[in-house]
Specification:
It is built from two helices and no strands. It is mostly helical.
């Protein structure tokens, strides 16, 4: 390997690594921009299968008030 080939190899490897650094920095910037406005998509989780009762019907979390419970 003579001096010209070594210089081309060194310059090529430096430019290749510089290109990789720029690509990674671009990916990080794009990821941060997307993450700021991204809302997680939740499909097929336990919450997605929860069915809320119609308005006016008591659900299991709300106690039902009766005359006996109010008079206590």
């Amino acid at each position: 390997m003579d001096m010209d080939q070594a210089a081309v190899f060194l310059g090529g490897s430096i430019l290749t690594m510089l290109g990789f650094v720029i690509v990674v920095a671009g990916i990080v910037v794009i990821n941060n921009i997307i993450h700021k406005y991204w809302k997680p998509v939740r499909i097929f989780t336990a919450d997605s299968w929860h069915i809320n009762p119609p308005a006016g019907y008591p659900n299991q979390e709300e106690p039902v008030l009766t005359k006996e419970s109010v008079n206590k």
